[in-house]
Amino acid sequence: MKNASCLDTTLPPIRFRHPGPPLYQQLADQLRQAILDKGLHPGEKLPTLQQMATLCGVARVTARQAVQLLVSEGYLEARQGRGTHVARQLPLRPCTSMRTSWSALVKRIEGASVELLAAAEVTACPLLTGEQKGLPAACYQYMKRVHIKDGVRFAFIDLYLDKDIYDLAPERFDATTVIPVMDELGVDVATARQILTIGIASPEAAHHLGIACGMPVAQVERFACDKSGKVVYAASMVHPGDRVRFEIDLVR
């Protein structure tokens, strides 16, 4: 299947990955990004499905599936007899703001709901291997979970919490975001750091976040230590790349 490298002015260049997600998802992802980047403007009319299929080198049904997906998300509007246009009012995009202070982090994730996927008591935290992060606790409560806010699945997480802390409020830790509960319980957090890496979604992360496998994601490792240097909280989380905003104050 041959792809057009330079398309009609009403479409951005579309390039497909083989292997990769279904072609309609790849086409929808690139059209959505073009809308967000203002390459396609509000109110602008798109080619017909057949024209789009020819320009992109895909089947007509693939073009139709991509358009239907973007219509359902609110990025496109399709009306009988008028064709398909870029929506004049784009949907709001909930963003995860990557804060640089523990207190700001507490406020940001308050109110999020949790889908608990797996839990177990473990004696080791694999996130502490390699670069020194701190002293390990004797035992951790492991939790695999998805965080959801305003109906958006914004984080897929592998989390390790000092078992002594977990036992203070196990039902609360299972049901809601961990950091605000730690703050309410007065848990001693002397130091904390997080490491952000840009990557691509694994099949498991993509499944639980409802995104395409291979899509850009922000991978965050976060560690919190008490005054003795013991790691009381360690987490590895994946955020969809289009829902992350990183704000940094620059120091002169």
Ends apart, CA distance between termini: 52 Å
Widest beta sheet: strand line-up: 4-5-6-9-8-7
The number of distinct β-strands equals 10
Structural class: alpha+beta
What does this structure look like?
By secondary structure, the chain is an alpha+beta fold. The chain has 2 domains: about 25-85, Winged helix-like DNA-binding domain superfamily/Winged helix DNA-binding domain (Arc Repressor Mutant, subunit A); about 95-245, Chorismate lyase, CATH 3.40.1410. The chain has helices spanning about 25-35, 50-55, 60-75, 100-110, 165, 170-175, 180-185, 205-210; strands at about 75-80, 85, 95-100, 115-120, 140-150, 150-160, 190-200, 215-225, 230-240, 245. Helix 1 crosses helix 3 (about 60-75) and helix 2 (about 50-55) packs across helix 3. The protein starts with about 20 loop residues before the first helix and ends in a 6-residue tail after the last strand. Residues about 1-10 have low confidence and may be disordered.
List keywords for this structure.
Arc Repressor Mutant, subunit A, Chorismate lyase, disordered N terminus, 252 residues, single chain, elongated, WH-like_DNA-bd_sf, two-stranded antiparallel sheet, 8 helices, alpha+beta, Transcriptional regulator, GntR family
